[in-house]
Amino acid sequence: MAALYYLMSAADRFPLYGEVTAPRITPIGAMSAVIDGAADVAPIDSYAFCLLQKYRSDLTSQLRVIARTGRTPIPPLVASAPGLDALQAAFLEAHRIAAIAPLMAELLLDRFVRPDPASYDALRLNFETASRYWRAHPLAATVHPAFVFEPE
Questions:
Q1: How far apart are CA 141 and CA 152, in angstroms?
Q2: Residue 89: per-residue pLDDT
Q3: 41, 66 contact by CB (below 8 A)
Q4: b or e along 124-135 (b: 16 or more beta carbons within 10 Å of the residue's beta carbon)?
Q5: Residue ranges in the chain whose pLDDT is less than 50
Q6: Local structure of 142: helix, strand or coil
Q7: Is 131 helix (H, G, I), strand (E, B) or coil?
Q8: What is the pLDDT of residue 151?
Q9: What is the pTM of this model?
Q10: Residue 149's pLDDT is what?
Q11: Where along the chain do its domains lie?
């Protein structure tokens, strides 16, 4: 959704694109669509892109970053209530455990932090704003049904 929020300020004509194709679900799917010529552009989460640069440079080297969205919180890890406190403590302390450090380095993680709920409120507001905007302005001449914004 960060890409749709970003595109609100970049839209100088409507429709902005000729077609929005079926969702590719994964970052590799989105990248492959661009590489294979099935799409001109695709949004890719920055963390996923960094991991792919590290582990699949054969793909990322074929792409060019053309814009960056504003920073948004990464999706939270969630769990059910039983054992939640112990699990949360384990994640918050993971960066201090020597045996886990190599794994975290491989995942490009410095540490886990307790999320700020307000940052997710802002993310929700951006989603609502972008949803309203793209309901009123055509994003593309043809939009795959998975991306159609229904009226409120």
A1: 21
A2: 93
A3: yes
A4: eebeeebbebbe
A5: none
A6: strand
A7: helix
A8: 58
A9: 0.83
A10: 66
A11: 2-76+115-147
